[in-house]
């Protein structure tokens, strides 16, 4: 099973899009997306220096556009799982078919501008806390009045909040931990970004999303999102909510992902996956220039869907939205007809039952989990295919 990952802010490098602009149609695509996002993506990706592309208002649409541009060169129909880090979630949502590329780039432009504006309201920042005991690190962050904005796994937590509080954390780091200030404009993924969340919500309300056509993991909790409207709500909420990339990687492992392909500018997420999931033996390819496309396509061919010239039935996979014990709906069996929104079971959690519903009409062709099976967020539960006669 193959997962394609879309990186977030901080991964950008000067000139990283230059090799891509020469591909047929690429520059025209970027100019169209530039008109939608309100920034010159061609200039930013080819000629702009490090300081210019560090600007949040410019960086966010640039990263989303880069991921989508590169993905157009890949056989994405063979990809089972997609995920993105922070603003990379917008790119992942488009790759999952839930948003159009135009909607994703437009939202990235709004998100970047509004988050930059929120950063200017008061002096805030972010610092990476590397190493140390995870519980002690989180306790220290809370004790200083800060927020764990990113929990990236592999011994990395990013603290965010007031600059004076970050300075105190650096002066009194948790045991066996290092605190490194990050060159960012402000405290992303914290309540300081509330004005940006409100502004993004106003624009997102005018978009009609589709249900994802492949497994799409959410930064909020690492779970797979089955419905387009829920996805849009989560994307807006993520502006002030912590990025739980650690839970996304746990879901990659739970799903049995065997290979990961990171889209440009690649390297950051691949490194986190390599350190966190090294015991899983996941094969990793980073796609940074068109020269990397043969290796990327080969990875898709070997770990994606098996190629076939025969007509293939189209299936929808229903996945768990939470961890717990799966209970199929009483009386529902393989071969039964189900309709959109029909309850097909629930996952029993400590907080109560989480309903599992069909997100398309068709036949329940196969149970992928059975009564009282333990399931993880994003784990496939049932396969629905075809259409009822």
TrEMBL record:
Pfam families: Acyl_transf_1. It is an enzyme of class 2 (transferase). It comes from the Bacteria. Keywords: Acyltransferase, Transferase. Residues 5-325 form the Malonyl-CoA:ACP transacylase (MAT) domain. It catalyses: holo-[ACP] + malonyl-CoA = malonyl-[ACP] + CoA. Its EC number is 2.3.1.39. SMART domains: PKS_AT. This is [acyl-carrier-protein] S-malonyltransferase. It comes from Asanoa siamensis. The lineage of its organism: Bacteria, Bacillati, Actinomycetota, Actinomycetes, Micromonosporales.
């Amino acid at each position: 099973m193959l997962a394609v990952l879309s990186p977030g802010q901080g991964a950008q490098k000067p000139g990283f899009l230059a090799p891509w602009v020469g591909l047929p149609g690429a520059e025209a695509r970027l100019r169209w997306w530039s008109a939608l996002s309100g920034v010159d993506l061609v200039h930013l990706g080819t000629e702009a220096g490090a300081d210019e592309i560090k600007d949040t208002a410019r960086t966010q649409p640039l990263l989303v556009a880069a991921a989508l541009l590169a993905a157009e060169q890949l056989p994405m129909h063979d990809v089972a799982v997609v995920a993105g880090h922070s603003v990379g979630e917008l790119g992942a949502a488009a790759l999952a078919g839930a948003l159009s590329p135009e909607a994703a780039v437009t939202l990235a432009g709004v998100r970047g501008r509004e988050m930059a504006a929120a950063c200017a309201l008061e002096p805030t920042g972010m610092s990476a806390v590397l190493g140390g005991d995870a519980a002690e690190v989180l306790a220290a962050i809370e004790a200083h009045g800060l927020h764990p904005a990113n929990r990236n796994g592999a011994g990395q937590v990013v603290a965010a909040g007031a600059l004076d509080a970050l300075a105190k954390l650096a002066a009194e780091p948790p045991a066996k931990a290092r605190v490194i200030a990050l060159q960012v404009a402000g405290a992303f993924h914290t309540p300081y970004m509330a004005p940006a969340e409100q502004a993004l919500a106003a624009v997102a309300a005018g978009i009609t999303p589709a249900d994802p056509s492949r497994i799409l993991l959410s930064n909020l909790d690492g779970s797979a999102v089955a419905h387009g409207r829920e996805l849009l709500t989560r994307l807006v909420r993520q502006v002030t909510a912590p990025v739980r990339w650690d839970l996304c990687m746990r879901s990659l492992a739970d799903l049995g992902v065997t290979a990961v392909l990171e889209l440009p500018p690649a390297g950051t997420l691949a490194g986190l996956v390599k350190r966190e999931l090294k015991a899983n033996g996941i094969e990793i390819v980073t796609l940074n220039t068109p020269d990397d496309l043969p290796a990327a396509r080969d990875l898709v061919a070997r770990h994606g869907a098996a190629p076939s010239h025969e007509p293939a039935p189209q299936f929808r996979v229903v996945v768990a939205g939470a961890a717990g014990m799966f209970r199929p709906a009483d009386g529902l069996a393989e071969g039964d007809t189900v309709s959109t929104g029909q309850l097909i079971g629930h996952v029993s959690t400590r907080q109560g039952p989480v309903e599992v519903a069909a997100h398309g009409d068709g036949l329940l062709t196969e149970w992928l989990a059975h009564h009282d099976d333990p399931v993880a967020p994003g784990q496939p539960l049932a396969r629905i295919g075809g259409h009822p006669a």
